[in-house]
Specification:
This protein is of the alpha+beta class. It contains 5 helices and 11 strands; from the N terminus they run H-E-E-E-H-H-E-E-E-E-H-E-H-E-E-E. The chain is globular.
């Protein structure tokens, strides 16, 4: 049957292929995998890991790779979940979409999640052409501006302040991150008291201040009454987050 794929669909597949290549690079598979067109999809009852990326380009990501990482999970002795094992690979895939935040990864039945019309799907195959994993990407359309109801400037200001006041007591999780590093599962399991991990940040560099996982500021680590604290040195705008 002749192909009816549109230019937009082709662009989506190109984007999915680039993301899948990064995913394959960090996938804890027992064999090297390359990106290839899908010739056959996994069964609907296959286990899929899903995550949502929100940023300049927002998207839904889905990975079926339980068989590809089975050996790595077995070596972890059941201490690492499938979603956690795929998290670094999903982060690498989402990084190709630009700046943004990757939501928590959740495992569940595939249930046809790769054959939807708006999902660009690719396979991850071994050297012999056998598919060991699949990756799907659904790009989310950018929201259009919504016309707002006109009101008097003074009344609109009061309404805005009242709406914000309702949020003043809402608690948000704030964390400080001094650096990161990547380790294979084998080294994580070998960690013992006294192990020194080298982070990706120089000594004295500012720490990242995150609110619900989103970068909002940077600051220096201080000690306040024998407890650690953060002195804010920079507020990060939405374009720098």
């Amino acid at each position: 049957m002749a192909s009816t794929r549109t230019t937009a669909d082709t662009d989506a597949v190109t984007t999915a292929s680039a993301a899948a290549a990064e995913l394959a690079r960090l996938l804890p598979s027992s064999v090297p995998l390359d990106v290839a067109p899908v010739t056959a999809l996994p069964a609907d009852d296959a286990v899929a890991v899903r995550a949502t990326f929100v940023g300049a380009t927002s998207a839904d990501l889905v990975v079926v790779a339980d068989a590809a990482v089975a050996e790595a999970l077995a070596g972890a002795g059941g201490t690492v979940s499938l979603a956690d094992a795929l998290r670094p690979a999903l982060e690498a895939a989402s990084a190709t979409l630009g700046a943004g935040v990757l939501d928590a990864a959740v495992a569940g039945p595939l249930a046809g999640g790769l054959d939807d019309d708006d999902v660009a799907a690719v396979a991850l195959v071994a050297a012999d052409g056998t598919a060991h994993a699949w990756f799907g990407l659904r790009l989310r359309p950018r929201p259009e501006s919504v016309p707002q109801q006109r009101s008097a400037p003074s009344q609109r200001g009061v309404d805005d302040r009242s709406a914000l006041r309702l949020l003043h007591d809402v608690e948000m999780t704030l964390t400080a991150e001094i650096g990161r590093t990547r380790l294979p599962v084998r080294q994580v399991l070998e960690l013992v008291p006294g192990t020194v991990l080298e982070l990706d940040r120089a000594a004295g560099a500012p720490a990242d201040v995150m609110v619900n996982g989103r970068l909002v500021a940077r600051g220096e680590v201080v000690v306040v009454d024998e407890e650690y604290g953060i002195r804010i040195t920079e507020i990060v705008g939405s374009e720098g987050a």
